[in-house]
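Quick one, T. Sequence first:
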Amino acid sequence: MHLESENKPCLVRTAQGFSVSYKNLFLYSKYNPARNILSIIEKMEILPGTIVLCFSPVLNYGLEPLAEKLPENCIMFGIEADSELHKLSESESENLECTKNNIYELVPQKELILLPEKLEKLCKTGKFRRVIYVEFSGGFSLNKEFYTRLFDACRNSVSQFWKNHVTLVKFGRKYCANLLKNIHLISKSIEKITVSKKIIVVGAGESSLETLKKISRNRDDFFIIAVDAALKTLKALKITPDAAVCEEAQSIIAKAFTGCKQDFRYFFVSTTATNTAARINPEKNIFYTPLFTDAAFLKKLEGEGILNSVQPPLGSVGLSATQIALNIRKDENIPVFVTGLDFSYSIGKTHATNSFHDSARRATSSKIKSFENFNAAFGNDSTKFYGKDGNIAITTTALSGYAKLFSYKFSGTKNLFDAGKNGINLELPKKQPEENIIDLTQKKKQTEEISYTKTNELNAKIQKWLKTERNALSELKSIFTGKSKLSENERNEKIRELLKNREYLYLHFPDSYRLDFSQSFLNRIRIEIDYFIKIIDLQIL
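Structure tokens:
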């Protein structure tokens, strides 16, 4: 093959094989084209469960040696951003042994944008856990930014899958149990509200104090949404929020409402939040559902109109509160301000004065245990940085991750402003609530429009679903205890059918990424059946 145009790849014969001349570059050495990539592969140490992205393979030097070196549960994907080089690589890969053995696949260019999603599906098999990349030729430099972004997207996709899986293993059972305990309260709740004045989202970070003090005189000009941990801070400042938000699945958060149960008119509560919190003021509840998994039973509940206000899981109640504020404002002209969402803290102190965590620390302090929490600032995961105010602050991997997610999710949102002066930069315009940004008629007596749920209709749907689940679980129990006389094939098929829309029985298992018919897996499901039957029985009227 010899192409004279500089806009086409041109094979160049060397003493030890072919190189490629393209766009005034030699993509391989002019002396020994394969030496560089073979040297890289020889030094590589690859762990089992690795997905290898082979960037710009062109003449495919090194693919076979790399495939031979891979341990178990590994796979390779060829990625070629340049259409001309892709054609060349495609023509050279047809007879590769690793292609025939399904270890290597050259990804079609039109499918590159879908690669992160494809890798996530591979992770669901439980075999793949990490992504690495290898630069196979100088073609990488022609589209370096593309390759870098694609790798980041693929790595994040795989990483996020396993982070979510670990979260489900730790909290999935509690999420599902709480949802089943809360579900009968949905029919008694408010469906939604619409707000037509400035909204302030108050987190429990230290920056909230200055903002709240500034607006205290004009408190009625704002609709204030407080995260659960910030309620006591507002109470100490004699500011009554309009709404509170709770997403915590563990019952410890109920202590954040001590002395504050009547201090808000609306309660935005996750269907996965602890039932203790959801029962504080059921008539004030406005439920929303973080889609903590893509399980079929959640989709069914949403499809039947039982779960409304389903939103992506954001991990932090502060992010959820911000999303709620944007959802309830009448239109995009209504400004929303966030404060106390610092995702960091100062040395010795982690939250705003009088917040839930601050109060708990004070209550347990003594001569032996100092009120100041210096351990948080000097732990192994803590990192110093300069905050928005120019002062040193402390953050952690988890907190900085929430800040990045906040910026990714909300930066560029119309009329969303950062009023907090401390903490990590959220990539939002800096504005204070007291500034007259938009001329609104704020002194109306009625500033919210309220929609109530259709109690009888919704309650009937909920009760029907609960009874269906109860019957299905009873049938499963009969199969597991041997009361149902079925052949092994019939038994397995019936179990598969009954478990298909009831992932809450096993999504918290470490091996829940696939439905397993091993005796160990089925024994664990048998235990869970009794647990969820007891919960459902308490919800059936």
